[in-house]
From TrEMBL:
Keywords: DNA-binding, Transcription, Transcription regulation. This is LysR family transcriptional regulator. It comes from Nonomuraea harbinensis. It comes from the Bacteria. Belongs to the LysR transcriptional regulatory family. Residues 3-60 form the HTH lysR-type domain.
Amino acid sequence: MDIDPRRLRVLREVHLRGGVMRAAEALHLTPSAVSQQLVQLEREVGLALVDRSQRRVSLTPAGRVLAGYAERVEEELAEARRELTRFTERLAGPVRIAAFPTVIQHILVPALRDLAARHPRIEPAIHEVFGPPALQELRLGEADVLITEQDMSRPVLAQPSLATRALFVDEYRVVVPPDWPEPPRHVSELADVPWVASEPHLACGQALDRLAGLHGFEPRKLHVITDFAPTLALVAAGRGVAIVPTLALLDVREGEVLVSDIRDVGARRIDAVTRVSRTRSGEPDPVQAVVIAAIERATAELESSLSAHLGQPRDEVPG
């Protein structure tokens, strides 16, 4: 039995993504080309791998078994790449990193400079994506390293197929318009004001809901914004108050917003997540390992600069 490994990958994508259309998008092929690859694979193995009796294409039991072996083939190839790196002093190849804006700006950009100096043949590619879509990219192999954020009150992402490494704890701050007479000192003072809120599945959205529940009020979410730049612009314009992480305040101009003295707002946890290696050695991909090391070095430098930043008076953002 002679099986083309490229067709195995097509079968694996159809299985993981639940259909031909999504597999075609992931593989940058037409649905017709995917269907043809599946037909050729069925000829090679002499078995029906796809159930075409329903409107939605699914795999037969034999197809699911072979798709499982296709995943193992991918793992064996990854193992081979790891073994071959022993014969060269220079790591090379692409690595795909999924992350969100504040981490891209303040951690990944410095990390990439470090990485280019130490390992110039590594080719990092960053995709701005976060939340459930980012986790799906990692699971499906579209991302190699995922940087996540989550409110500290939530449990650490724990799945057998994923490895999570803590990077950074980013404290929240409550910011208010610059023309307020003085920053509030208690969350209860903000029960009746409009909020510039984050999406509820994001860390700052989780923090607002948590604080409101603890203090017994329903926040008036007048604006719902994902990115921190427009969030801070709305606060600066007097359109509401907001919870933002410290990283979001690093580039804010002096006096643009007031930072409150409210304590115990909490923090978001920033983690690096990778897929767990299920190969014989169990070791991580060497390219991914040096990328994560560069990210950790950049994070350590950021923490040092933040210590100086947080040492400034807290009633307004320093220049």
